[in-house]
Specification:
It comes from Sphingobacterium athyrii. Keywords: Methyltransferase, RNA-binding, Transferase. It holds the Pfam family UPF0020. One of its GO terms (molecular function) is RNA binding. This is RNA methyltransferase. This protein is an alpha/beta fold. It folds into 2 domains: about 150 residues, VC0802-like; about 190 residues, Vaccinia Virus protein VP39 (Rossmann fold). It has 11 helices and 15 strands. It is elongated and about 70 Å long. The termini are far apart.
Length: about 400
Amino acid sequence: MEVFNTPNKVIITCNKRLSPYLQQEVKELGFDIVRAFPTGVELKVSVNDTIKLNLNLRTASQILYSLKEFSANNPTELYEELSAIAWEELIQFDGYFSVSSNVDNETISTPLFANVKVKDAIVDRIKDKKGMRPNSGPENNKAVIHLYWKDDRAEIFLDTSGETLAKHGYRKIPGKAPMLEALAASTIIASKWDGVSAFVNPMCGSGTLAIEAALIATNRKPGLLRMNYSFMHFIGYDETVFFQERRLLKDQINKKAAPQIIASDISEEAINVSKMNARTAGVEQLISFEVCDFAETHVPKEGGVILFNPEYGERLGTHTKLEITYKRMGDFMKQECKGYRGYIFTGNPDLAKKIGLRASRRIEFYNGKLDCRLLEYELYEGTREKTKVLYE
């Protein structure tokens, strides 16, 4: 099975509501999208093409290369269909693989049972052909096989990513309630920040938004921080393709980029964590860190984007302390951030009402399972027309 050079159906998954930003990234890399849907996109490319995608995409989760679509009503039929695939041409007989799945079939009470049937079909086939069986287990840091099975429709994939692409590898110390890197990157893309003007991130927590902004501004891609993907563990992998793509990532870094990126937090511990994470990401020198109340954050006069990711409190019922904080954020943006586009990311609509500014856009996101909004505020300086020119 020459999957590395054979174009086939590929599904790139992402978290809900990140699909528009994933589509933008995929198109910018020069790939044609066959189909887009709320949690991903479909392409027709080879496994070698997925290497480029794995290394470059900021908003994706997994990149799945389709091996076979088939009908299966029960575990026995699933096993028989999978046993017909030449697994001995994909997985080393002395190798290791794991299985993940998305299953909705009335004969399956737990996805783990479906995973076992997939594992058994692969192991039995390879043992029959090679006389030895590969090892398997829960770790997804080697070859990963993914099963999609809904009703009687099943599809088996090579998961070319393995560990999720949504984590970008620099956050060794996550901090309190951190925003997932793919979500942070998506909110910055949604803000249409130009990568040149100022980017101000008060209440920065573990620094994810400021770090993602610095990575975007300098065109540093997630693949620079990762040296292990599932595609490396399938038969046919040519490491020269990977290293060629990785060299391109290094060559594409914009070392001249020097936007003013400011990250502040009232917690000295949070700022120390942010600095360590930024150092791991290779962008510490691009970010000015400040320990202060958000209202004392330095805001450059030239204009740009200011983005808050405050606490949301409980979904139902708000805390008086947070109500005051949200009102202060609105006052701060109105008084100190003229000429900026302001953004507040929140999962609490009741608290959002306390901001006291009219949102020009309400961009839908999820943070985990929580329904959230990125609220946009145009903080005009002088006349409306004058400020418009700043962003044309």
